[in-house]
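Customer escalation, tier 2.

The customer says the design service returned an amino acid string that "doesn't look like it belongs to this structure." They asked us to rerun it and document both sides in this ticket. The original structure tokens are below, unchanged.
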């Protein structure tokens, strides 16, 4: 099982017990680093540096900080019991959950927490940061928004399921989409604490949320459907893309990329007509992970015979060119 699968501007990071870093630079492709990070709950990369934060499977609450570019271990932060989620506030400040309901804030090169955030009444299941704000989802059914400078909780968003694990921001940063294993999505204006909509989807993982260029939200479901929603939660349309659960989504120009699971298919669609154009390649077995970012699409798959995981990376502009050549034949 790969817990972290992330694209940066230079690398693809696939993290399980071992973290493998691949360069997707066409001039220097190949494996960049390979190092053991131990069993873990969650792995996150800082978007503007080479830092990796690991919530390890450790009863003491060990959180590890790594340089993923060369596999160097920098520092650990220990306290609060087992941490299941972590977040970068910035390059030198971090947050981790605990075995209780507390959230710990850490500073690089310091051994003790700089602040403890209290307010949740259940274990924290997800942490995300935006600017200087920290967003936390908990088994108590709330999402709390914290000012990390003062430690103050500035909003409490209530009424969520216990297994909330998705905190997704719209492109303009205002609407917050909160979801998880039940497929329920609540859309909030987090700045004023007002809920805009509550909808039932089949999107149960963060890779099944995609922000369209027009501000709409596209979701993929375990039932193989693709749905489009306005920022206010109104359903625009729905169509079946796969006969199996959807693993991931991508959008490039006028085309949508849908990635299946056990069918091993990567399908290209004309977004305006919702018509299937062509598969990106022949089926590749079971697709376990998929991600897009920095102009790239990456998948991790395992063949039917159970061989080693295979990683593939494509440039989205080349996918767009490939899809464009098949538009006429689809109509």
């Amino acid at each position: 099982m790969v817990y972290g699968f992330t694209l940066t501007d230079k690398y693809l990071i696939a993290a399980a017990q071992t973290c493998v870093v691949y360069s997707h630079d066409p001039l220097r492709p190949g494996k960049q680093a390979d190092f053991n990070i131990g069993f873990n709950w969650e792995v996150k990369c800082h978007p503007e540096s080479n830092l990796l934060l690991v919530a390890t499977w450790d009863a003491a609450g060990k959180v590890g900080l790594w340089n993923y570019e060369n596999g160097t271990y920098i520092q650990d932060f220990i306290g609060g019991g087992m941490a299941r989620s972590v977040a970068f506030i910035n390059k030198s400040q971090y947050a981790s959950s605990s075995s209780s309901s507390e959230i710990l804030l850490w500073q690089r090169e310091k051994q003790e927490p700089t602040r403890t955030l209290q307010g949740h009444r259940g274990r924290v299941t997800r942490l995300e940061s935006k600017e200087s704000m920290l967003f936390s989802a908990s088994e108590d059914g709330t999402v709390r928004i914290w000012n990390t400078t003062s430690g103050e909780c500035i909003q409490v968003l209530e009424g969520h399921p216990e297994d909330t694990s998705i905190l997704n921001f719209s492109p303009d940063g205002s609407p917050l989409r909160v979801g998880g294993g039940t497929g329920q999505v609540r859309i909030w204006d987090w700045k004023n604490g007002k809920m805009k909509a509550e909808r039932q989807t089949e999107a149960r993982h963060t890779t099944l949320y995609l922000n369209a260029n027009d501000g709409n939200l596209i979701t993929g479901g375990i039932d193989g459907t693709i749905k489009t929603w306005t920022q206010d939660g109104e359903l625009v349309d729905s169509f079946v893309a796969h006969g199996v659960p959807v693993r991931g989504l991508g959008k490039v120009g006028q085309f949508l990329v849908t990635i299946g699971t056990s069918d091993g298919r990567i399908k290209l669609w004309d977004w305006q007509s919702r018509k299937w154009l062509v598969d990106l390649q022949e089926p590749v077995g079971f697709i376990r992970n998929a991600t897009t970012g920095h102009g790239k699409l990456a998948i991790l798959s395992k063949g039917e015979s159970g061989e080693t995981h295979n990683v593939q990376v494509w440039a989205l502009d080349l996918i767009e060119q490939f899809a464009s050549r098949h538009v006429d034949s689809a109509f």
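Tier 2 assessment: The sequence is consistent with the input. The radius of gyration is 20 Å. The chain has a mean pLDDT of 90. Sent an explanation to the customer and offered a walkthrough call.
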